[in-house]
């Protein structure tokens, strides 16, 4: 029987004939060996009912699947977690943060290709991955509505949906009727064109379409969903993270005082997670105004600053609302018509475009796993080999930003691990692309400094007092024994990591 809400939201009436159930999609449309591209980013707007049905089908029948899975960013547990548990994911692109699939990747059971998520679209469009994965067989997209011509209105994430829909042989829609149809109009679908500048000169400017074009003949099935996000793997802010954000705003205020920034700053980009959430909510407490946000993940906390008149416009590829934050969900839904005047959701190829980041002089603020004394950043691996998540789009912002800032607590694991280390065990962002490092102890402004000067700033102003003497000892010995532009003692560079592996603590 056709759901009444679904009927109202499928404007292309010929597609009412393809409304189906998730089990039928699994049996008749999902290939046993092939490539599936799924919407969603930051665990928002991932298809949920079809992956759940697929995992259950494999458990019950024992039928073998071997699939490459594409998403733009971290996916809901229903996708990465459930499908990894039943062993049907052979390759995973381009970002993940689920503990189940992470364990499979680290054991070599799943091949994981980590790439900047803005660059991922180019790899797809030019067929760079087809040698390993073949073409995209099915795109599974969470949407809130299908237009008369078959065009798709996405949910709270645009990510790489336009590319997935264009490249897929078949498209399956998870029509999420639990999301308000009033989201229509928040999206601006425009993709870069070769040899043409992107025609966006204001953060809230719209230059594209409110929907993703799709030939209705491509839509093989529509599955009605009322599934909302159930959990995320990003914790709530702590007192340490509050101090980090306080230091961040003190640094930005000092830049205003020096005349290098106005009180409107430049458009802000923040990485996902508790620090990014705090940056959005704490803006209301500082003497900034008319601030703009140009980011890949627009955290819902920015709406507080928007309501307070501190933020004027927000552009992102996804609007991230933690499922536990019912207050902000109600805030968003209750005032959606007003927010749509100031909030724009775009494809990731636009939000992460070097052209746009440079044009807007974006202030990039991302987090790290560890930073070495010269400013090189590891944000994706532990002890060099074990992946945590992926690089996301941080490097795209760091490379092109007006200011590239990295924020993190100075220690981890109850102080047993220093996150300022002599040498990073894995480097995602080289020291050349890092302007400022901020921890709960202070900030190190690295602009214009030689490696030796950078080391002194980072150790003295950002490292935990528990590890400061160790870091000073390493740096001074490296300068005396080896010297060079960036002194390192190769036999001791990973001594803190080695001690942790042997004793469970770097101390």
- The total of beta strands comes to 26
Contiguous uncertain segments of 5+ residues = none
Radius of gyration: 23 Å
Q: Can you count the helices?
A: 19
- Fraction of helical residues: 25-40%
Name of the CATH architecture of the largest domain: 3-Layer(aba) Sandwich
Class computed from helices, strands and strand pairing: alpha/beta
What number is the mean pLDDT?
Answer: 95
Q: Which outline best applies?
A: globular
- The domain tally reads 2
Descriptive account of the structure:
With 507 residues, the protein is α/β, with parallel strands linked by helices. The strands form seven sheets. Strands 1, 2, 3, 4, 5, 6, 7, 8 and 9 form a nine-stranded mixed β-sheet that branches. Strands 10-16-21-25-26 form a five-stranded mixed β-sheet. A three-stranded parallel β-sheet has the order 11-13-15. Helix 2 crosses helix 3 and helix 17 (451-462) packs antiparallel against helix 18 (465-481). It starts with a helix and ends with a helix.
Topology:
Layout: H1 4-9, E1 19-20, H2 22-28, E2 33-38, H3 49-61, E3 66-70, H4 80-85, E4 89-93, H5 99-106, E5 111-112, H6 117-125, H7 130-133, E6 138-146, E7 152-154, H8 161-167, E8 170-176, E9 219-225, H9 239-257, E10 268-270, H10 274-282, E11 291-294, E12 297-299, H11 302-307, E13 311-316, E14 318-320, H12 326-334, H13 336-339, E15 343-345, H14 348-351, H15 354-359, E16 363-367, E17 370-372, E18 377-378, E19 381-382, E20 386-387, H16 394-400, E21 403-407, E22 411-412, E23 417-418, E24 420-421, E25 436-439, E26 442-445, H17 451-462, H18 465-481, H19 495-503
Parallel strand pairs: 1-9, 2-3, 2-6, 3-4, 4-5, 6-8, 8-9, 10-16, 11-13, 12-14, 13-15, 16-21, 17-24, 21-25
Antiparallel strand pairs: 6-7, 17-18, 19-20, 22-23, 25-26
Helix pairs in contact: 2-3, 9-10, 17-18
């Amino acid at each position: 029987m056709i759901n009444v809400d679904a009927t109202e939201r499928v404007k292309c009436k010929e597609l009412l004939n393809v409304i189906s159930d998730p089990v039928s999609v699994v049996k008749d449309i999902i290939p046993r060996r092939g490539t599936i591209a799924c919407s969603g980013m930051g665990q928002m707007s991932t298809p949920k009912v079809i992956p759940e049905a697929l995992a259950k089908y494999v458990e019950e029948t024992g039928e073998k699947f071997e699939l490459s899975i594409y998403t733009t960013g971290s996916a809901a547990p229903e996708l990465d977690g459930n499908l990894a548990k039943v062993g049907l994911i052979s390759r995973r692109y381009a970002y993940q943060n689920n503990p189940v699939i992470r364990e499979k990747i680290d054991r070599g059971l799943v091949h994981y290709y980590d790439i900047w998520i803005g660059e991922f679209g180019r790899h797809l469009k030019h067929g760079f991955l087809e040698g390993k994965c073949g073409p995209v067989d099915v795109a599974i997209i969470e949407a809130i509505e299908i237009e008369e011509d078959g065009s798709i209105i996405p949910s709270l994430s645009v990510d790489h949906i336009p590319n997935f829909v264009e490249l897929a042989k078949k498209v399956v829609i998870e029509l999420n009727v639990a999301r308000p149809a009033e989201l229509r109009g928040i999206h601006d679908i425009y993709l870069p064109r070769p040899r043409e500048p992107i025609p966006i000169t204001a953060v809230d400017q719209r230059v594209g379409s409110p929907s993703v074009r799709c030939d209705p003949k491509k839509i093989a099935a529509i599955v009605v969903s009322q599934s909302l996000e159930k959990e995320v793997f990003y914790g709530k802010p702590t007192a340490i993270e509050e101090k980090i954000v306080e230091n961040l705003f003190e640094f930005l205020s000092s830049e205003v005082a020096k005349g290098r920034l106005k009180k409107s700053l430049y458009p802000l980009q923040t990485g996902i997670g508790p620090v990014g959430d705090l940056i959005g909510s704490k803006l209301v407490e500082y003497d900034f105004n008319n601030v703009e946000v140009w980011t890949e993940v627009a955290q819902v906390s920015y709406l507080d600053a928007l309501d307070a008149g501190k933020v004027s416009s927000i552009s992102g590829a996804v609007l991230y609302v933690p499922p536990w934050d019912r207050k902000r969900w109600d805030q968003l839904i209750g005032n959606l018509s007003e927010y749509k005047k100031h909030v724009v959701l775009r494809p990731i190829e636009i939000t992460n475009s070097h052209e746009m980041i440079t044009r807007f002089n974006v202030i990039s603020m991302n987090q790290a796993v560890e930073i070495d004394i010269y400013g090189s950043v590891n944000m994706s691996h532990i002890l060099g080999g074990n992946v945590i998540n992926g690089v996301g789009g941080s490097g795209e912002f760091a490379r092109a930003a007006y200011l590239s800032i990295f924020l993190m607590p100075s220690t981890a694991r109850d102080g047993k691990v220093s996150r300022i280390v002599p040498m990073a065990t894995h480097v995602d962002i080289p020291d050349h692309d890092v302007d400022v490092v901020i921890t709960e102890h202070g900030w190190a402004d690295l602009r214009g400094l030689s490696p030796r000067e950078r080391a002194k700033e980072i150790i003295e102003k950002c490292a935990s007092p528990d590890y400061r003497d160790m870091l000073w000892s390493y740096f001074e010995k490296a300068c005396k024994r080896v010297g060079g532009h960036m002194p390192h003692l190769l036999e001791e560079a990973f001594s803190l990591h080695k001690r942790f592996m042997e004793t469970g603590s770097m101390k």
